[in-house]
Design a protein that fits this description.
This protein is α/β, with parallel strands linked by helices. Helices cover 43% and strands 15% of the residues. The protein folds into 2 domains: 184 residues, Glycogen Phosphorylase B (Rossmann fold, 3-Layer(aba) Sandwich); 205 residues, Rossmann fold (3-Layer(aba) Sandwich). It is built from 16 helices and 14 strands.
Length: 395
């Protein structure tokens, strides 16, 4: 039986961590699995396999991050040697770098989960990482892109070898999602009995929740009883809270933090909104669809278009509300952090109009809810895990 290592920074919080959890549970019966975490001090998700904790906590400044990369490489090389790892699969940028430079006799697979050229616009650290991608990612035996647009980006903007890149979408255990969505924690029953729309994701720049809060201010004028539930933790909490307060929405915008069972909130929501500025393959959007609720998303790179408008050009971005087959797409916003009293942008106005239309028409919502649930079956765990096995066996 092959020995396979799944390498990631940690197993708490975000979408990539949930994805690794699900992949480990699905691969555990096929391989001798090792889950290698840089920091295993907090684990939010189930996993299968042998847990290996490198005990290297997250560093905030660039200098310490660079030191930690070298520490990861040394420790990871020792782990690969000790456990005779055959195939090493890494997730996230720092883990990918450590995986490449710790190669022993193992085959290297890198998972790319974002449109990386979007990230490289932001800060010096991301630009430096872009150089690393161009110089070293082609050393991997395989690169797994989480969407077709991610693959396109890697080839066009980073000169990676096209034939070395495979696209494998995220996988979802729908039976598990449905069971969890049916569970109603007594502590939150009063929240679940409200009329609300929902969003879910880390409170971070890429997720754009302030655009949704500002758009919701217009929706609230028409539907004052409807609330906005925001699931997730992150560094933008104070800013987002200030926007809600500045718009006199402090009682209507509810910050729920990280939830171990978010599906009970999603399933009882009138609709789900994804206001991300860029993604890879948005777990939150797919999981909301699995709960059978209608969805609205910014037409950001990448993922939403491939999920909601599957037969369209992956590089196209809508200029108005697009009534796609499996959900509504609206123009992505500019990502500028506006104040509460700044006029709404065009993108925020489109988002407000789309939400309002959904809330006004129950039959319209229900039809899109059915389409969403039908589409998401294409990403069922057994269909996707076969693709992972095929790649592992081919390297």
């Amino acid at each position: 039986m092959k020995r396979v290592a799944l390498i990631i920074n940690h197993l708490s919080g975000g979408g990539a961590e949930r994805a690794v959890s699900k992949i480990s549970l699905a691969l555990g019966s096929h391989y001798d699995l090792f889950l290698v975490l840089s920091d295993g001090s907090k684990i939010d998700y189930e996993y299968d396999g042998h847990l290996v904790d490198l005990k290297i906590p997250h560093a905030k400044n660039v200098f310490l991050k660079m030191i930690n990369v070298f520490r990861r490489i040394v420790k990871l090389r020792n782990i690969k040697k000790r456990y005779n790892i055959d195939v090493s699969i890494s997730f996230h940028e720092l883990s990918n770098v450590a995986n490449i430079f710790s190669r022993k006799r193992d085959k290297i697979i890198l998972s790319v989960r974002n449109v990386l050229s979007e990230r490289n616009k932001k800060v010096v650290y991301d630009k430096l990482y872009g150089i690393v991608i161009k110089l070293f990612y082609n050393r991997a035996d395989k690169i797994i892109a989480v969407s077709e647009l991610c693959k396109y980006d890697l080839v066009k903007n980073f000169n990676l070898i096209k034939n070395r890149i495979e696209v494998i979408y995220n996988l979802y255990d729908f039976d598990s999602i449905r069971k969890m969505s049916d569970k109603k924690d007594k502590a939150v029953l009063s929240l679940l009995n409200q009329r609300y729309i929902s969003t879910m994701g880390r409170l971070a720049d890429a997720k754009g929740q302030w655009h949704l809060i500002r758009a919701f201010s217009e929706v609230h004028k028409i539907f004052p009883e409807v609330k906005l539930y925001i699931l997730g933790d992150g560094e933008l909490y104070d800013y987002l809270k200030s926007i809600a307060t500045g718009l006199a929405l402090e009682d209507s915008v509810v910050f729920l933090g990280f939830q171990k069972n978010p599906f009970q909130f999603l399933a009882n929501s009138m609709l789900f909104v994804l206001p991300s500025l860029f993604e890879g393959f948005p777990n939150a959007l797919a999981e909301a669809m699995a709960c059978g609720i209608p969805v609205i998303s910014f037409d950001c790179p990448s993922g939403p278009r491939e999920i909601l408008a599957a037969d369209t050009d992956i590089t196209y971005q809508t200029k108005t509300i697009e009534y796609a087959k499996s959900g509504l797409l609206v123009p992505v916003c500019d990502g500028w952090k506006y104040k509460a009293d700044d006029p709404l942008t065009d993108g925020e106005n489109f988002l407000s109009a789309a939400i309002t239309q959904m809330l006004k028409d129950k039959k319209f919502r229900e039809a899109y809810g059915r389409e969403a649930q039908k589409r998401i079956l294409d990403f069922e765990v057994n269909r996707i895990i076969d693709q992972w096995i095929e790649v592992i066996e081919s390297v």
